[in-house]
Request: fold
Amino acid sequence: MLACSLNALGIDFRRPVPEFHSWLLSKTGAIRCFQAVEIPGDFCEAFGVAVEQTGEFLILVFLGIVGACVGSFLNVVAYRLPRECMSIVRPRSRCTQCSAWISWRDNLPLLSWLLLRGRCRNCRTRISLRYPLVELTTAAWFAGAAWFLGGAQLLRGIPEQGALWLHFAVMTLIFCVLLVLALIDWDYRILPDQLTIGGMIVGPLLAFAAPEVQHGKMLLHVAGNGVWAVRTDAALNGLLGMALGAGVLWLVGWIGSRIWKRDAMGLGDVKMIGAMGAVLGLWVFLALVVASISGALVGVIRMAVRKDHQIPFGPFLALGMLMVMIAGPQILDLWLGLARVE
Reply:
């Protein structure tokens, strides 16, 4: 804050100080005479708050722009990854209808879609609304995650707030992977092994980097006390959550296939829940509950509207993980409260 900074220099903002006169005269040769003016402390505090809020707003806007650019790339990944013959890096994007190359000016997140009015510049084919929605959603997540973690605290820099920035990086990485999985599963009813098995491998490392995603409630406590012990416990709980989550969902699918005489659960869902458990630990079961409830509600609505009872489970698993990652304890308290009422 401004007043605190001046106090650190030995200058009292609130009353005339001879040292302040000398310092100002030494720095400003044009001033020959100066009489200190008393500045109220409330004004200094309000000015400092305004500067802090402005900085917070700017960093949220910047992260939102970065998120929109990342969302544009996620659209490419969701389109190309299921097509195993295509690289997610090269070649550059082209129109899916006329195959015309898309120039940089037509590939600006959100802005280009608006300027082109949602149509290809070359063939005028309509561009799906999903592209700008993915970019907007990713931008909102980047800015929202930063605000959720404290906003202005991130301004203090990586050295002072390294753990906070690491938590932010883990949250955004998980969101990006879940979004791509949800889009691919919705379109093709598949969950690529590159993301699910990759998540099972990397998940414990993410839990180690940001144990806050497990909300400080872990079943296994074997590493003792201290920051590194908490990180180690989070990774171990991630391994346990991966094994139990994937095992339970596989068992449910096996029982369902015996009852209905057909596949009741794809192995892609099993591997995805395993990847989720690798990060969340035993919180993965709460995510599974949230996914099951939301999936059932959407399924009922879809059956009433379209007479179609087959919907992918991946998007709802992604939703469940995001909700638990943000508000797991609150959801658990709500669930337990409803259970007590009943």
Q: What stands out?
A: The chain has two domains: 57-156, 165-342. The chain has eleven helices and no strands. The radius of gyration is 26 Å. The CA atoms of residues 14 and 122 lie 66 Å apart.
